[in-house]
Amino acid sequence: MKEISVTRIIQTVREMCIEANCNLNSDVRCALERGLAREESPIAQTMLTDILKNAEIARDEQMPICQDTGMAVFFLKLGQEVHITGGLLQDAINEGVRQGYRDGYLRKSVVQDPVRRGNTGDNTPAVIHLELVAGDSLEITLAPKGFGSENMSAIKMCKPSEGLDGIIDFVVETVKSAGGNPCPPLVVGVGIGGTFEKCATLAKSALLRDVDSKNPDPYYAELEETLLTKINQLDIGPQGFGGKTTALGVNVETFPTHIAGMPCAVNINCHVTRHIAKSLC
């Protein structure tokens, strides 16, 4: 039985919070550069140039890429041969967030109650998705999620009769309605199948994939390309000023569902699309 201490988890999470908020992922940076190369609109070119420059400054100065450093969302894969020692896994994750947001001078954006509000003061609690897997390691993935983009997300309990066209129309309309609010260019996560909550989780987890990755199923890889093309024809463009680069990528994830349903969720992420993964073993 592999033992992993909460002290090690806390330190790892602390470092991840700071790194994810200050360093733009290389796949996103490359996608932004490709967008800049094909843009024809001078305003869109300026916006993309400024976005890339902002990321460069954030990296060099180790300061947040965006002032909204998000709500900390974790996807954990815990090996069944792992024993967490010294405390509870959930407590360790939250303590790591607490320390990371404090030591990294990251904005604390979490309120204690969704209606009555009241800032918790340390950006906890985190949202934690836990999956038990084979093995003797703990894989931690963090995706800080700002709410300029999160607020533009949507879910629809599509009927099977709506078919693929219904899904395409829903995804494209969701992005169209969002306009410039979620700070495009976007990465769009789409979850199809499961239940109400499962398809939402699928859409969120889809954002963890590299922006230039493809669904392993050719059918859904083609759907990703179709959606990306249609979204980029909306002329929303970088920061909503028009252009060819409304989205950098569309990632689709699926799960089996009930014969009477075809749930679909769209989770929109801004151009930063922060995520980082580390494995403890």
What does this molecule look like?
- With 281 residues, this protein is of the alpha/beta class.
- The chain has two domains: 2-20 and 65-145, 2-Layer Sandwich (Dihydrodipicolinate Reductase, domain 2), CATH 3.30.360; 148-273, no CATH class.
- Helices cover 40% and strands 27% of the residues.
- The protein has eight helices and twelve strands.
- The strands form four sheets. It has a four-stranded mixed β-sheet with strand order 6-2-7-12.
- A hairpin with a 3-residue loop joins strand 4 (111-113) and strand 5 (117-119).
- Helix 1 (6-22) crosses helix 4 (89-103).
- The longest helix is centred in the N-terminal third of the chain and has 20 residues, at 42-61.
- The radius of gyration is 19 Å and the shape is globular.
- The N and C termini lie close together (11 Å).
Spell out the key features of this protein.
281 residues; alpha/beta; Dihydrodipicolinate Reductase, domain 2; 2 domains; four-stranded mixed β-sheet; 12 strands
